[in-house]
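Incident review: delayed structure delivery

Summary: a single-chain prediction request sat in the queue longer than the usual turnaround. Root cause was a stuck worker, restarted by the on-call engineer. No data loss occurred. The affected request and its eventual output are reproduced below so the record is complete for anyone auditing the incident later.

Affected input:
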Amino acid sequence: MKLGGILDISTKDIPHKSAMVLFTVGCNFKCEFCHNKYLLQPNVGREYSIKELIAKISTNLLVSGVSITGGEPTLQKDLPELCREIKKIGKYLSIDTNGSNPDVLKTISSYVNRVALDLKGPFEPEKLERITGVKVDINKIRETFDFLKAQKDLDFEIRTTYVESLLSSIDIENIIYTLRELEFTGNFVLQQYQFSEGVGEEFKRIFSKPEHDTLVTILKPYRDLELPFKIFLRDEIVGYCAIHELDI
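Output delivered after worker restart:
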């Protein structure tokens, strides 16, 4: 498996758990605001054998979980093998994905405890193409959503990174009401975009970080709304916080 980096311990990637984070190389989306854009470079990282990774994970006694992120992990051909071996050693396993490869997610679902679906925007082809830089097959993402929603033993999170120049409060409203119509029962997370050096200096002015108050204002109408799922805010002020706990 080709990785661009390994973080030995993180308390931010899986809620309420300490985790080792594996950053896979490569992605089929071209989001210009990507926090980990360096992972898209062809010469980044190195190949690890599954045996080598399992040895690293199993000897890390400080973590109870493993988060596989990227990039897009489902592009890695040996992802099913790695997931199967992680399950054998009893670590809680979380996968981050853009949802474009439902067949791979179906293959690994019996080994995985949690999936975080990175929903880039509302289910609108033109909007998603503008955000991702590619033509997105919405049917594939819907197939991923429908499959994951049906997995009763799976922790299912959907998150949207709020970039002010690409999304609006109307888009978030669209996503929330669509999830309600689709009877989503997991967690929806509105995530603050934060610039990193990997994005590239030329994009620093194009993509601005939304303020905490802006995100709170966007979520305020849904605090007392009866929904089948929970809404969270993730930003530098509150960390990972349910909206009913926010000071609104």
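Verification: Residues 2-245 form a domain with the TIM Barrel fold (CATH 3.20.20.70).
Action items: add queue-age alerting; document worker restart procedure.
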